Amino acid sequence: MLEVRNLQVSYGAIEAVRDVSLSARSGHITALIGANGAGKSSLMRAISGVTPATSGQILVNGRDITRLKPHERARVGVAHAMEGRRILHQHTVEENLVTAWHFRKPPGSFKQALEKVYSNFPVLAERRRAKAGTLSGGQQQMLILSMATQHEPPVVLLDEPSLGLAPIIVTQIFEYIKAYSAEGNRVVLLSEQMATLALKVADYGYVLKHGQVVFDGDRKQLNDGVADLSSAYLGTT
Ligand code: ATP
């Protein structure tokens, strides 16, 4: 369980996240839904520690991680796949996976993890020796997801995993995310601009506007409110 209590993130005078509280349950997928600039990335960055929170608390399974450094949070099991496709473009697919593995120094066997990555995404196996920069957007997202999850962290933050991808690839990526969450009873928090897309994957969702939670609910409640939510908070989808 990931809990965020009264979190505040400011950049100088800009209050990007304002008094946000949420909980993301193990084995469930929780979505942060909001338009461009609503504060989704800032909230995720504060959870993983790459952007400091001004105030508030972050707890993982009851443990307060608010004061831990980003690499210490990673060791507690918080993985963050950031927006903007953070991969090494000049390195091969496999080199990217190796680098991400060693950076986190997890227990267990890299060989086994790699086999699992390639069985989840056979196209990455086919392109294992290709430079990551030559992959399509969908393949890059598969690589990013694999880099964030190959060591099987209990808490995964995914910033807009569907961004810019064709619907068929989004479906594939969402299937992977669902399986990842269910298989290990893991926490998945993902951000999404479009409520309709979030509904395809999320068990629970929080809608953000101007840094504040303006609505939250389970899949049914989101579904019932999707038309109103889209016009009120998200722009038409
Ligand atoms: P997007 O979908 O564009 O990533 P978002 O919902 O993730 O949007 P944030 O990126 O968290 O929103 O931005 C929230 C607010 O904070 C916006 O007003 C944005 O301009 C501002 N902001 C974000 N990062 C910075 C920064 N490094 N310095 C100053 N302001 C920032």
From TrEMBL:
Any GO MF annotation of the entry: ATP binding
Keyword ATP-binding set for record: yes
UniProt keyword annotations, A-Z: Amino-acid transport, ATP-binding, Nucleotide-binding, Transport
Taxonomic superkingdom: Bacteria
SMART domains per UniProt: AAA (SM00382)
ABC transporter domain residues: 2-235
Keyword Transport recorded: yes
Pfam families: ABC_tran
Gene Ontology process terms (BP): L-amino acid transport
Database matches in InterPro entries: AAA+_ATPase, ABC_transporter-like_ATP-bd, ABC_transporter-like_CS, BCAA_Transport_ATP-bd_LivF, P-loop_NTPase
Similarity comment: family membership: Belongs to the ABC transporter superfamily.
PANTHER family: HIGH-AFFINITY BRANCHED-CHAIN AMINO ACID TRANSPORT ATP-BINDING PROTEIN LIVF (PTHR43820:SF4)
Name under which the protein is recorded: Branched-chain amino acid transport system ATP-binding protein
